[in-house]
Write a structure and sequence with these properties.
By secondary structure, the chain is α/β, with parallel strands linked by helices. It folds into two domains: 94 residues, Glycogen Phosphorylase B (Rossmann fold, 3-Layer(aba) Sandwich); 30 residues, no CATH class. Helix content is 42%, strand content 11%. The chain is built from six helices and four strands. Strands 1-2-3-4 form a four-stranded parallel beta sheet, covered by helices on one side. This is MGDG_synth. Belongs to the glycosyltransferase 28 family.
């Protein structure tokens, strides 16, 4: 039953309770729905939830029907598409296509130089601070 929605929700709930992350980042649309369901059941649990949309331009609506604290997309046309579908522009961030290695933007981040491998505080400020 691990692969049923109920089983996945239970497993995700257990992981969140055990690891208590500062932020949850998802690259799969189903997890946003499960995460929101878990938050409803556990009143008082507040963790930012970021969605990295791996589609470009032709975005399946499953990605954005469940609201996220921030949507990270590859390019401006994808961001524009989300806005046209009703997603608030202020929570959409076009960060470029991911690739292996350090981008110039990432290399300039002061937090990256101080704490290599850490979650970049520049990303945190752009995406989840409000």
């Amino acid at each position: 039953a691990m692969w049923t929605t109920k089983g996945l929700r239970k497993a995700l709930d257990k992981l969140l309770a055990e690891f208590r992350p500062d932020v949850v980042i998802s690259t799969y649309p189903l997890y946003a729905y499960l995460f929101r369901d878990i938050q409803k059941r556990r009143l008082g649990v507040k963790m930012p939830f970021l969605t990295i949309i791996t589609d470009s331009v032709g975005v399946n609506s499953a990605w954005h029907r469940c609201l996220s604290d921030a949507f990270l997309v590859a390019d401006e046309p994808t961001a524009d598409l989300l806005v046209s579908r009703g997603v608030p522009a202020e929570i959409i961030h076009a960060l470029g296509f991911p690739f292996r290695g350090i981008s110039p933007r990432r290399a300039r981040c002061p937090a990256r130089r101080l704490h290599p491998g850490s979650c970049c505080s520049c990303l945190r400020r752009r995406c989840i601070s409000r």
